[in-house]
C-alpha cells in the first residue's frame, strides 16, 4: 500500500534569508500560508522589475499521523527556483530548477517531533535557468507538497522525480495494433504489470523490469477528435502500486506537408501558455488550470506550446484528456551561461523523466531564442548537441526542436542540431512589416525544402482600452492586434508546410520589467486578458477559423463605442458561411464568405448593430462623436504620425520616407542622405548599432522596411522625419 498525504496546509512563511536554526526559531512569527504559494503574486505583476528576489523560508511541523506508515518520502512538485530541504535543521537535499518535481527520503532522519523547513531562492545566479527572459521569475512553493509513505519494497521514487513507470506505445496503423512496453524500477524481485485488462508478472533485474503487450484494434489517441487514454499499472507483492495513463498515437512530420497524426495530415494550429494568473502569480489551483483548458477548447486550438519551462502535471493531464498536442520545453532561454550547462541537462532529464508518459507531448524544445544574447560559438553548439543527444537517448520516440530568434541566420549551424525547427518572428510588431513574415518563410522553405520548419511565436500587444479606425503597429489597439492576426492567419493557411504555429500568447502574462501599452508589468500579447475575463477581438478570429463545432458571430470593436467618423467599418468574425447585418433593427447587408466579414455603414448618431449567422447573433452599440475619444489613444504622439504625410501632397515620382531603406540606399542621390541619417543614429546607439551592422540577416530585413517605420522605431521625432521627407521629395526616382 502506498499512502499519499497532501501537506498544503499549515505552513509558516518567512520572507527573509536566515540560517536554518533561525528559520525554525522564528517560524511562529512567520505568515501562516497554504500552498500553492508565491511571494511575488503582487510585486511580480505591478511593473518596475523590482519584485522580491532572494531567499525565503517555508516551515511546517509534520504530525505523527503524517509521518507514519513505512518509508517516507517528501514530494515537492514545484519550488522556485532553488530549494534546500531541511528536516529538524539538518540539510537533506538541494534542488536547482523551479519547474520540475523532486523527492527526498525522510525515513532515516525522522524523530518523534519533526520540523520540515524549505529554503527557496529566486535570486539571480549564473547557473540555474532562467536568468534573462520576458516573464516574472516568481519565487515560492507554488505547487502541491506531498508525503508519500511506501512499504520497504517499493517503486523508485528518487531518480529525477520519476513516476516509477514508463510506458512506450508504438502503433502499427495498418494492422491497427499497438505495442506497449512498460518499464518499471523497484527494489523487489518481481512486478505484476497490467495493461488493458491483461496482467503479466515479470522479474526485476538489477532494479528494473520490462513487460510487453499488444493491443489489437487499438483505440487511438486521436487529438481533439478522440483523445482516448489507456492505463498501465504495476504492482509489487508488498502492495506498492504505480500507474500511468497512456495513449496510442503516431506522430510524423513532413517538410512539405507539415504534421501528421495517426497517418493523416493534422496541421498543428494553436497558442502558447504561461502558467500565471492576475493576482495569483504562478500559484494556480486545479480549477485555474481547468479553466484555462476550457478557454483553449473554446478557441479550437489543437496544439499548445507550454512555454518556457515544465508546467504542472495536472496541466499535461488536461492536454492528454483534451487531445491537445504539446510542445514541452526547458527554460534554456535568451542567454547561454557558461556555468549553466549542467542545469540545462538536469532540467531536461527531469522534464523527460516526469512527462514521458503523456501522450499529448510531441516534441522536446531544447531552447528559446538562445542566440538573442549569445553568440553561436562552439560552447553553445556543444550544449545544444548534448541536450539533443540526451533527448534522443531518453526518448527515441519523440522529436527535438528549438524556437529561434528572427535574427538568427537561416544557415546557422545551430539549426542543424534539433530534428525539426521553428522561428519566433515579430515582423509587423517590434520591427518590419507584416509581409516580411511571408517572405521569411518563403525564403527559408525555398532554400531548405527538406527541412521541417514551424512558426513558434508571433503576436502583437493590445490593451482592450485602446481603439482606432486607422490601426498601426505600436498603437496597442485591439484593432491592430486583430489586423495583425488576420494577416498571420492567411499567411499560415497559405503555407501548409509549417509543422506547427503558436500564437504568442493565449493570455496576457506578467513580465515585471515591462511598462508599456498603458499597463505596468504585463506582456499584453494575449488573446485573452491576464485575469481571463475579457477575450480580445483577435481571440474570435482564431475561434472562427479553428472551432467549427458551434456556430457563432462576433462583432468586433464592441469597446470602440465612440467613433468620430461619417462612415465606419463593422467587422464580424464568424465560423458561419453567411452573415447578415442589421442597423437599428433594419437589415442592411448580407455577406457570404469565410472567417472575416467586413461591412461599411454610415454613422449618424447612436446605433444598435446586430449581426446574425446560422442560429446565432451578436449585437453592440456604437455612436458618432464630434471629436476623437482621447481615452482610446495610448501613444498620442505616435498615433498622429500617419496624418503627417497627406497622400495628396506627396509627389509619387520622387522619393519619400514611405520608400524602403533598400530602395533608398540603392539610389545614388538618396543613398548618401539616408546613410548619413543612419550613421547619426548608429553613433547614438553604440554597441547595438555594431551588432546590427554585422548581422546580414538584420540588414536584409531592415532593407525591406520603410524609412518611416525604421525612424519611428528608432524613436526619431516628428520634425526630423518631416525634414528628411522634404529632402527626399526633392530627389526624382
Ligand atoms: C519572444 C520570447 C517570449 C517573449 C516574446 C515577446 O520572442 O520568446 O518569451 O515574451 O518574445 O512578447 O516579446
Question: Helicity range of the residues?
Answer: 10-25%
CATH class of the largest domain: Alpha Beta
Mean pLDDT: 95
Query: For the CA atoms, what is the radius of gyration?
Result: 28 Å
What gross morphology would you assign?
globular
Major beta sheet, strand line-up:
31-30-29-28-27-26-25-32
User: Which fold name corresponds to the CATH topology of the largest domain?
Assistant: TIM Barrel
Report strand %. Answer: 25-35%
pLDDT under 50 segments (min length 5)? Answer: none
How many helical stretches? 17
The number of domains is 5
Describe the largest sheet: 8 strands, parallel
What small ligands are held by the chains?
(2S,3S,4S,5R)-3,4,5-trihydroxy-6-oxo-oxane-2-carboxylic acid
How many DSSP-defined strands? 42
Oligomer kind:
single chain
CATH-level-4 superfamily name of the largest domain: Glycosidases
Task: Give the distance, in angstroms, between the N- and C-terminal Cα atoms.
Answer: 84 Å
Task: Briefly note the structural class of the backbone.
Answer: alpha+beta
CATH architecture of the largest domain: Alpha-Beta Barrel
Mind sketching the topology for me?
Elements: E1 3-6, E2 11-14, H1 20-26, E3 31-33, E4 55-62, H2 64-67, E5 71-76, E6 79-80, E7 82-87, E8 90-96, E9 102-105, E10 114-121, E11 140-141, E12 145-150, E13 165-172, E14 177-185, E15 190-195, E16 198-203, E17 208-215, E18 221-222, E19 226-227, E20 230-235, E21 241-246, E22 251-254, E23 258-261, E24 264-265, E25 268-273, H3 286-299, E26 303-306, H4 313-322, E27 325-329, H5 341-355, E28 361-368, H6 378-394, E29 399-405, E30 421-424, H7 435-447, E31 453-457, H8 478-493, E32 500-503, E33 509-516, E34 519-523, H9 537-546, E35 553-555, E36 562-563, E37 567-574, E38 578-583, E39 586-592, E40 595-602, E41 606-613, E42 616-624, H10 636-639, H11 641-644, H12 661-666, H13 670-685, H14 687-693, H15 696-703, H16 707-713, H17 718-729
Parallel strand pairs: 25-26, 25-32, 26-27, 27-28, 28-29, 29-30, 30-31, 36-42
Antiparallel strand pairs: 1-12, 2-3, 2-4, 4-10, 5-9, 5-12, 6-11, 7-8, 7-10, 13-14, 14-17, 15-16, 15-20, 18-19, 20-21, 22-23, 23-24, 33-34, 35-37, 37-40, 38-39, 38-41, 41-42
The protein binds (2S,3S,4S,5R)-3,4,5-trihydroxy-6-oxo-oxane-2-carboxylic acid.
